[in-house]
Amino acid sequence: MHTEQLISTFVEYYEERGHRRITGSTLLPPDGDSVLFTTSGMHPLTPHLEGRPHPLGKRLVNVQRCLRTTDLDEVGDATHLTVFEMLGTWSLGDYEGPLSLDWGYGLLTEGLGIDPGLLHATAFAGDGRTGPDTASVELWQGLGVPIELTVDDNWWSNGPVGPCGPDSEIFLWSGEGPPRSTPTGDDRWVEVWNHVTMTHRRLGDGSLVPLPQRNVDTGLGLERLASLLQGRSSVFACDVFDPWRRHVPALWPLDEPSLRLVCDHLRSAVVVLGDGVRPANTGRGYVLRRLVRRLLTVLWRDDPSRSIGDLPEELVQHTLDHFRQDTRPGDVLRMLREEEHRFSRLLDRGRQVLARSRFQGPLTEDDFGYLHDTHGLPRDLITSLRRHED
Ligand code: SER
Description:
The protein has 12 helices and 9 strands. By secondary structure, the chain is of the alpha+beta class. The chain folds into 2 domains: 3-234, 2-Layer Sandwich (BirA Bifunctional Protein, domain 2), CATH 3.30.930.10; 238-389. The longest helix has 26 residues, at 329-354. Keywords: Aminoacyl-tRNA synthetase, ATP-binding, Ligase, Nucleotide-binding, Protein biosynthesis, RNA-binding, tRNA-binding.
């Protein structure tokens, strides 16, 4: 199933159950949110989870682009992307968690044809502050889906402060042969859908206060589910990456881990630029800068003559269109090239600095700290520059 078809099946299923579609918005969260980027579909809805009525009512559905840097070092494995899309549903003080799970199960099995025997659920076991999520446990038992209870993995928070609550996650078996073990025991169980019952708000001092209403917030990772439905071994092999897989290896021969990182970071950089962020040394702009520098570090490891400027404009256009962004692809490419030049100049400086006698022996942590803080040289780049000098 193509991702566009997956999106429409999802949205229609929830529209039939009284949900109104809201327009997914930018990667920049609303003012006052505690995170740099939208990391989950609920960010634009925070005020409504906290009680402000939403103009479209109490049942909502959307597709939201998200960016997560917490998983940056995992990018390149089978399931993590920096920018991804989340299909989301919300009950704003309307129905409760078990109905949400029941609908989710119905969509996955009847709507999308997934074998119920390949599903596993998890739920909140309870801790000193909040009791166990018995309602979710009973729902899963009634459906005959195996369930595992955890504490930390089944409490969802928006960030250090903000709405939070117990969640029940749905996992899909990705291994060959019959499912084994449990989600915490075997990573071939891939988490696809999280149903959070948002009951509390965490305050700056860490304490929890009940929200004025009980909400349900669910998020399903589009590329993850698409790759599993398409029988692909990783998110990088789902249809979203088809154009990237067509163009990038033709430009730059890369091994699979490098290809994944380059595609992920380039695609993310295009979307971040498309949402109006510009490279900088702090905040969002620094995240963008790091993405570009990480991918250039990988590209230049084998061949320093490679340039982002060679990227076909149609690939950038395809990505901007997919995310419904109206920035011109030529502008995006120009900004990427400017950032590439800045980095290239920095490297030249770096080579000169590294040639100093102080840096001829093994480098200490202080050296790495100094080279990073004073000259902006990341550790993997220093290592690779020194390797090339050997
Ligand atoms: N906010 C939850 C998550 O990000 C569900 O959407 O997993």
